[in-house]
Amino acid sequence: MALRILFLVPHVPASPRPAFDTKYRAPAYHNAMRARVERARVEFPCDIVHVDQLAMAQYIPDAWRGALVVDPHDAISLTEARKLTLGRMNAGQRFLQRYQVAKIKRYEEIIAARADAYVVNARPDLEYLAAFIPRAKVCAIPNDVDTAYFHPPCEMATKPGLVFTGSFYYAFNADAMLYFHAHILPRVRAVFPALRLQIVGANPPPALQALAARDALTTVTGYVDDVRPHVWQAAVFISPLRGGTGMKNKLLNAMAMGKAIVATTSSADGLGVQHEQELLLADGDAPFADAVLRVLNDSALAKRLGDAARAFVEREYGYPKLAMRFEELYLRIVR
């Protein structure tokens, strides 16, 4: 069955703020986008409108009565609620953040009630949304991984260093690396004093950039065109996130590259991985540092974890398998 689908996808990076408080709401942009979507709907008769990211839900055509898929990726209100755990807000900021969370929850309720399918990437997000929007048609379809692009290195030898990748538009990434550098890295460097740390990703905040200024062994790259060489040359990929929601693509990509990984349970929530099989899971300063040291001191362990991680991603997150999940969803909602 050939389906025609109109995709509503943002063409600028998504803001970490809720949809009704973003640049997408600027009057000129908003009106132009609504007009463009309406033209596309008329010129391109379709069976399904697929909305990618919650910020784009405001552009669902008013006259649309066909099948609707909304794909916010994460439970956005849960992400925003968990920012309250980072501990960097004063009383006024915490009040405003709770107010934003309440508004987002209401917005999620409205959009999810209208959708024929409301898609998130991770099962914990599905369970959260199902609890307060029980009548919504919420389902979980994980992100796929391009295993041909994210592949193990061919020749590049690893160095005794650590790497972290992630966009720092996401507050939990900056929190993770600031905390790791202050509380966990010193424990590891007590054993490996010359250990290098690479922090790779767009929009590093000033506090993170300052780490490189005062620590010659730490590099903060900012945006890079290709993260793979940075990951390939490191001995261990770390993910010390202390919060957040959704599926962590950084972990899946590193696993596809056959990298030994040490991560917190929060980082790996919903991925289906197992401690000591595809990676090492550790929470707390000393346990996380000890897990990193285990990998640094045991090349056989590093290889075993990397090989198992690659095989896991190929088996569970390969593109053909997950593309079929969306095809099945589309066919189900138009019947």
Brief description of this entry?
By secondary structure, this protein is an alpha/beta fold. It has helices spanning 27-43, 76-82, 91-114, 123-132, 171-189, 206-214, 228-233, 249-256, 265-268, 285-297, 299-316, 319-334, and strands spanning 5-8, 48-52, 67-73, 117-120, 138-140, 159-165, 196-200, 218-222, 234-239, 261-263, 280-281. The chain folds into two domains: 5-143 and 319-334, Rossmann fold (3-Layer(aba) Sandwich), CATH 3.40.50; 159-316, Glycogen Phosphorylase B (Rossmann fold, 3-Layer(aba) Sandwich), CATH 3.40.50.
Task: Note down, in words, how this protein is organized.
This protein has 335 residues and is of the alpha/beta class. The chain folds into 2 domains: 5-143 and 319-334, 3-Layer(aba) Sandwich (Rossmann fold), CATH 3.40.50.2000; 159-316, Rossmann fold (3-Layer(aba) Sandwich), CATH 3.40.50. Helix content is 45%, strand content 15%. The chain contains 12 helices and 11 strands. It has helices at 27-43, 76-82, 91-114, 123-132, 171-189, 206-214, 228-233, 249-256, 265-268, 285-297, 299-316, 319-334; strands at 5-8, 48-52, 67-73, 117-120, 138-140, 159-165, 196-200, 218-222, 234-239, 261-263, 280-281. A 6-stranded parallel sheet has the order 8-7-6-9-10-11, sandwiched between helices. Helix 2 (76-82) runs antiparallel to helix 3 and helix 5 packs across helix 10. It is globular.
